[in-house]
Specification:
The complex is a heterodimer of chains A (about 270) and B (about 300). Chain A is mainly α. Chain A has 11 helices and no strands. Chain B has a domain of about 210 residues: P-loop containing nucleotide triphosphate hydrolases (Rossmann fold), CATH 3.40.50.300. In chain B, the strands form 2 sheets. A 6-stranded mixed beta sheet of chain B has the order 5-6-7-3-8-9, sandwiched between helices. A 3-stranded antiparallel beta sheet of chain B has the order 2-1-4, covered by helices on one side. The chains are: A mainly alpha (about 270), B alpha/beta (about 300). The interface between A and B is medium-sized, with 21 and 26 residues.
Chain lengths: ~270, ~300
C-alpha cells in the first residue's frame, strides 16, 4: 500500500473506487441476487412446464402488474387498503399512547386493567372480527378497527416500558428544579420514552398491514386482500402475484417511512 | 431615678469589671463555636448563623416499625461558603442525608432548615443545585441545552439562557462542546456539564452525591481541582458526599465522618490546610495527619 504509487494492478483495490465498492458490497449485490432469483424462477416454470394458473413466469406477473396498474384496479384497492391501515394505525397509536402513559404513571390502575389487556391479547383478534361485523357492519372503518385491535397491544407495552424505564434520578432532577407536571411530561417523559415507543411503532405498522389484509381476505369487498381473494376465484394467478408484490412494496415502504421518521426525530443519535 | 444612679456610681468599678468579664466570656465561647471568618465576620455584618441546620434528624425507610433506620439522630450545621464533606462506609446514609437537604426525601423525625426555610421552600426557591453520581444528562439535548434546562424550567428568556450557557461553559472550559451531544463527551466532561447545570440558576448551595465516584483516579483528581477553582469563583456552599478519604481531605473545610447503619455523625474533622490547595498540599505533614485522623474516625486505623 505504498502511498502515491498508482497504476499497479494489485493496488486498484485500495484506490477510492475500490474502497467504495468494498464498503457497499452488500448493496451492490442486491440486484444481482434478484436477477438470479428471477432467472431460477423462470427456469423452474419452463423446465417443469407449469400452467400459468399454477405458477406464472416473472414476465407474466410483470405484464399483469402493468396492466392492472394501468386500468387502475391495483391503485384503487391499494388506496383503500392504505386508508384502512392509516386509520387503524392512528386509532391504535392514539389509544396506546394515552392508555400507556396513564397505566405507566399509575401502577395500581395497571394492576387492575392488565389482566383484561392480556386477555384481549390471548384471544385471536381475527376471531372477534365476525362480532364486529355483526355489530357495526362491514366497511373500511370496521377493518381499520380490527387492525387497530391487533396493533394496539405492542404499542401499549412499549409506551409503558418507555415511561417506566426513565431512571429515578431524572425525576429527582426535575423535582429539584421544582418543575411542574407539564414540564416533567414535555421535557423529560416524552423525549425519554420516545425511542422505546418508536420500537412499538415499528412493530405496530407491520402488524396493522397484516391486520387489514387478513380482514380483507376474510370478508371485505374491496382492498388488496379482497383482490387476492378475487384473483384466486378467477384463477388469475398472475394478478394474485401482482397483488402480493404491490402489498409487499407497500409494507416495505411504510416500514422504511417509519425508519426515516425515527432518524429525523432522533437526529442526535446519528453522530455516534 | 436618682437613687439608682447613685447606686450604680457607688458600685461603679465593680459593676464594670463584672460586665466586662461576662462580655469576654461570651466572646470566648462565641470564638470557640465559630470559625475565624465568621467570628470576625460579625464586625462586617456577615450572618454568623449556619446556612443549613440539621437538628436531630432521623430517616426510616419502609414501615414505621420494621423499616430500615438509615439515619439516627443526626445534627449538623453547614456554614455559609464552606466546603463540607460527608464520608462514611456505604449504607451509612450519607446520600440519604444529602437527599433530605435537597428535599428529595422527607425526614421521619427532626428538622432541617436551609437559610431559614424548610427544605421544601428552599427547593421551590431554588436554593440548592444537585449533582448525582451519574451525570444524568438528557441525551436528546446538546450540551448548551442541557446546561440551561433549569433556566428553561424557571421560564428564563432565551437571550438570558444563551448568555448564562456561555458563562457556564467558560467556567468549565467546555465552550467548544456547546453544540455536541452528551454521548460525544467523556465521562469526566459529562460530569463537568452536570456541575455546570447545577449552577445554572446560581444556587447558594451545591449538593454533590459522590459525583466523581464512577471516574478513574486521574480524572477524579483533575475534576477535584477544577471543583475547588469553581467553588472559589462561584462562591457557593458545597455539601459533598464521598467515600474517598484523600478526596475529602483534599477538598474540604470540614469532614463529617459518619458511622455505619443506622448512620450518625461520628466526628467532625476540621481540615485546616491552607488554601488554595495544590499538589504541594500533599507534601505537608499536616495533610497526612488529617488523613490519619479521618481514617481513625472511620475505624480504619
Amino acid at each position: 500500500m505504498a502511498v502515491g504509487s498508482t497504476g499497479s494492478a494489485a493496488e486498484w483495490w485500495d484506490a477510492p473506487v475500490g474502497t467504495w465498492i468494498r464498503k457497499n458490497i452488500q448493496y451492490i449485490l442486491i440486484p444481482f441476487a434478484l436477477m438470479a432469483f428471477l432467472l431460477a424462477w423462470q427456469a423452474l416454470v419452463v423446465i417443469n412446464r407449469y400452467p400459468t394458473f399454477l405458477l406464472p413466469t416473472p414476465g407474466e406477473v410483470a405484464a399483469s402488474f402493468v396492466e392492472n396498474w394501468r386500468n387502475g384496479i391495483l391503485a384503487r384497492h391499494l388506496g383503500i387498503t392504505l386508508v384502512e391501515i392509516g386509520l387503524g394505525f392512528s386509532i391504535a397509536f392514539t389509544f396506546a399512547a394515552l392508555v400507556g402513559y396513564v397505566l405507566a404513571r399509575s401502577p395500581l390502575l395497571e394492576k387492575i386493567v392488565s389482566p383484561y389487556l392480556v386477555a384481549t391479547q390471548a384471544i385471536p383478534i381475527v376471531a372477534i372480527g365476525p362480532l364486529i361485523v355483526i355489530w357495526i357492519n362491514t366497511g373500511p372503518l370496521q377493518n381499520a378497527l380490527i387492525a387497530a385491535l391487533i396493533t394496539f397491544f405492542p404499542m401499549l407495552v412499549n409506551t409503558i416500558v418507555g415511561v417506566r424505564n426513565i431512571r429515578h434520578e431524572y425525576r429527582d432532577l426535575m423535582h429539584s428544579y421544582a418543575a411542574n407536571a407539564w414540564q416533567v411530561f414535555t421535557k423529560l417523559e416524552v423525549p425519554a420514552a420516545l425511542p422505546v415507543f418508536f420500537g412499538g411503532v415499528r412493530v405496530g405498522i407491520t402488524l396493522s398491514v397484516i391486520g387489514v389484509v387478513v380482514v380483507e381476505l376474510l370478508w371485505a369487498d374491496r382492498g388488496l386482500g379482497f383482490l387476492i381473494n378475487f384473483a384466486r376465484g378467477q384463477l388469475d394467478t398472475p394478478l394474485l402475484f401482482a397483488t402480493v408484490v404491490t402489498m409487499s412494496a407497500m409494507a416495505i415502504t411504510l416500514y422504511i417511512g417509519v425508519l426515516i421518521l425515527e432518524r429525523c426525530i432522533f437526529h442526535w443519535r446519528r453522530k455516534v | 431615678m436618682q437613687s439608682r444612679s447613685r447606686q450604680l456610681q457607688s458600685g461603679g468599678k465593680k459593676e464594670i469589671a463584672k460586665r466586662l468579664s461576662a462580655l469576654s466570656r461570651a466572646s470566648a465561647s462565641l470564638r470557640a463555636r465559630l470559625s475565624r471568618r465568621e467570628y470576625f465576620g460579625i464586625f462586617f455584618l456577615e450572618k454568623p448563623s449556619p446556612l443549613i441546620e440539621i437538628e436531630s434528624v432521623s430517616k426510616r425507610y419502609g414501615a414505621p416499625r420494621d423499616g430500615v433506620l438509615a439515619l439516627s439522630d443526626v445534627s449538623l450545621s453547614v456554614r455559609a461558603g464552606e466546603f463540607l464533606s460527608l464520608i462514611g462506609p456505604s449504607g451509612c446514609g450519607k446520600s440519604t442525608l444529602l437527599k433530605l437537604i435537597g428535599d428529595l426525601l422527607t425526614p421521619s423525625a427532626g428538622r432541617i432548615t436551609i437559610a431559614g426555610k424548610s427544605p421544601d421552600a428552599a427547593r421551590r426557591a431554588r436554593d440548592c443545585g444537585i449533582v448525582f453520581q451519574s451525570p444524568t444528562l438528557m441525551e436528546w439535548r446538546n450540551i448548551a441545552q442541557n446546561i440551561t434546562l433549569p433556566l428553561e424550567i424557571i421560564g428564563a428568556p432565551l437571550p438570558e439562557r444563551r448568555a448564562r450557557a456561555d458563562e457556564l461553559l467558560d467556567l468549565i472550559r467546555l465552550r467548544d462542546f456547546a453544540a455536541r451531544y452528551p454521548h460525544e463527551l467523556s465521562a469526566g466532561m459529562q460530569m463537568q456539564v452536570a456541575i455546570a447545570r447545577a449552577l445554572a440558576y446560581r444556587p447558594a448551595i451545591l449538593l454533590m452525591d459522590e459525583p466523581f465516584g464512577a471516574l478513574d483516579e486521574m480524572t477524579r483528581e483533575r475534576l477535584g481541582r477544577e471543583l475547588l477553582d469553581l467553588w472559589t469563583r462561584a462562591r457557593v456552599t458545597i455539601v459533598f458526599v464521598t467515600h474517598s478519604v484523600p478526596e475529602a481531605v483534599r477538598l474540604s473545610d470540614r469532614v463529617a465522618v459518619m458511622s455505619p447503619r443506622p448512620g450518625r455523625i461520628e466526628r467532625i474533622v476540621e481540615i485546616d490546610l491552607p488554601r488554595p490547595r495544590s499538589a504541594a498540599t500533599r507534601d505537608l505533614p499536616r495533610y497526612w495527619e488529617l488523613l490519619r485522623q479521618v481514617r481513625a474516625a472511620l475505624g480504619l486505623e
